[in-house]
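Quick illustration, no need to memorize.
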Amino acid sequence: MQRPKSVIPPEQVEGLQGSLATTNIVDLLQFLNASAKTGELLLQPSGKGQEARAYLVKGNLVHVVSGSLAGMEALIEVMGWTSGTFHFFESVLSPKNTMLMPTQQALLEAVRIQDERAKTQRAGTTAGNERSEDMPQAPRTSTDVLEELLKVPGVTAAVVVGRDGFVIESSGGSTAISLDDLGAALANAVNGIEEMGGELKIAKFQDLFVEYGRAVIMCRPVGDAVIAITAPDASKLGIIRHKAKPLVDELANFF
């Protein structure tokens, strides 16, 4: 850990005051330490927070108090302040001595403790997230999958049709196509295509794409049913096929 260096110019300490937004507390304490002055550094945070005081004797930090905190804990507390004001009053004597090490060593120790606590907090947050991920999640339903299909750019509707032509489940809608009519027509088309595949001995159909003047229809088997995905045109066909494939595969578990 590198020892921080003061950026405050060597000027008269009397009446030293300013904003914590532009001068941090470590720089202030290092400057006062180098100046070998005795007095009280009043720290007032922005908002409604309680003020804090740091006392020095011949530049040595001897006491820090912030609310109910004192000593090292108070120093760690105020070192985290990034807004507010400060004012140094020379020759004010400290009422106590709660700092048990030289100023520079105390500052480095406070920084070290801050770092350790930040690491512990980050580790706790990560562990909490992992525990949340390990908690059992509510199982997805076919409706959830269909709703996710509608989020694919270009998709206007998704309908699952039985081999008898009846709509089993659907999501979304199309102004160009009646989903009920699509179900009956799709069943006839798929049955004919599968019959042709059987005659040609080339197994069952895996994918069907039909483009009309006002709509595009993509079909795939999902278990014992068939899903049809509609889009207004073929401009997003590539992304639809890419993003829809894992969702269609998941739907096969429901039908």
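The domain at 142-252 is CATH 3.30.450.30 (Beta-Lactamase).
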